[in-house]
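Record 1 of the preview.
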Amino acid sequence: MTANKPRPGLAIAALSLGTALNPLNSSMIAVALVVLREHFELDVATVTWVITSFYLASAAGQPLMGRLADRFGPRRLFMFGMALVAVTCAVAPFLPNFALVCVARALMAVGTATAYPSAVVMVTELSRLANLPSTRPLGRIQMANTSAAAVGPVVGGLLVSLVGWQALFAINVPIALLAMIVVYKVAPVDSGRETGKLGQLIRDSDIPGILAFVTSLMLAMMALLNVMPGYRWYLLGAATVIGALFAWRELRFQPPFLDLRLLGRNRPLLLVYLLFVVFSGVYYFAFFGLPQLLQEAGNYDAGVVGLLMLPLAALSVGVTPLTVRFIERFGVRSVLIGGVLILTIATGALGFLTMTLWAPLVFVLTALMGVPYGVVSTASNQGLYVSARPGERGVASGIFQTCRYLGAITATVLIGVLYGPGVNQANWGILVLVMLGLSAVVLLLAVMWRKPAV
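->
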């Protein structure tokens, strides 16, 4: 398979479009739950599987897709993923039952999970062709992710109200096809990837290790999400046992799916992962916890709450280009520490909402919270890139995305616990204290991080 002359700027735009599909679909489905319940005659607990199936498949699929991008080529994998999304989303609107809709969501998650790792792997070559530092294309990819997550509920609301839940699938078809065609035409052809007989490639793929990793992660996330009430501890125990077996195998198999010895020696990469998990937890505390507070304690209409939360996303997108320039001038670590300090200040300022839920104050505070999200996300992205070895950036970026999901799900669980006695300003104060504690942990990890020696 050949391509036309590489055009890095256009290729980065297409890759960014593809990476936007995962956060877009993870957020815009939230507005369709009521419609899906009515269409398929479901209860509240059952309909949430349309979200859970996507989360589980995305979290487990990202590292696997990253490993495949490292082995067989990011361009090839990206096009496969976009084709899978296009076919799945073309069929999904005509599915006769809810179970198949959840299967379609899972397949769509796997397809969209190919995009971010593939884009990160291609950054090196595209940066060289465009004569740009890696911070520029990574910044554009980050902006696509953040923007898509922000506009998801708005786009989803319009599609559902004007067309129906089926449009949430159909909208992906032209986007995926456009991204696939442009990448095929203008992205550099994969080179230096594994080739050989199919049987040998399969034997070297560490399929038992992959299955153990995916199973352990999915069981752990099912336990966190409490998708099977009454079996949470059994799921967590099974995840621990299978995770231990996975580690035992990976330390003995060559070549392993995930080189745990190398990961253990790569302290900067481990710190990036830990930092991003905890940071994502802080962010999603605000992203999920604040709307509930405004609706139940402040008696705001859902539409007004959406407008009040919009500055959080808008500012996080807006500061990304500026963050890229700061990284180029001052380095990743300095910008990372600065972003976390702003995060701590913004988190502390959210404590004012224990006294008043005045709309202008909420608007200002959500805008303030958007600044560190854009700064820390972009700096963490670049920290991942410089910490991972070139031949392992695919799987490394896949794990990085999984860290986002782990942080989000952990925040969701803790919000449920802390809001259990009631969604009120007093309990919001407890949430803010937890967020401040987590921000202190993020700051410690940022200070500990150092760029690896070349």
